[in-house]
Write a structure and sequence with these properties.
- By secondary structure, the protein is mostly beta strands.
- The protein has one domain.
- Helices cover about 0% and strands about 70% of the residues.
- The protein has a three-stranded antiparallel beta sheet, with no helix packed on it. A three-stranded antiparallel beta sheet has the order 2-5-4, with no helix packed on it.
- A hairpin with a 4-residue loop joins strand 4 and strand 5.
- The termini are close together.
- The mean pLDDT is about 90.
Length: about 80
């Protein structure tokens, strides 16, 4: 088993941010599951989290920066991978 992790950092001040992230398993491995993590949970709205294909876990997220004048939010997507 192997875990693939992809990070993204968004900085305030900013408007609300809408984006998609993907974690892709290396060649020869398939995604068994996946997940996500955020440095500030109450500012993240995950509206999709699913296997996009046999090798990729995908999330779609909206971040709420209202009332934040400085700082950042770290977003992370995971794919749990195993040999095909």
């Amino acid at each position: 088993m192997q875990t693939v992790r992809v990070d993204r950092i968004d900085y305030a001040p900013s408007d609300d941010v809408l984006f998609t992230m993907r974690a892709t398993c290396p060649s020869g491995k398939k995604v068994l599951g996946g997940g996500h993590w955020f440095s500030i949970w109450n500012r993240a709205d995950v509206y999709q989290s699913f296997p996009e294909d046999e090798q990729t876990w995908r999330i779609s997220v909206s971040l709420d920066f209202s009332g934040i004048s400085a700082g950042s939010i770290v977003s992370r997507v995971y794919a749990l991978c195993a040999t095909a």
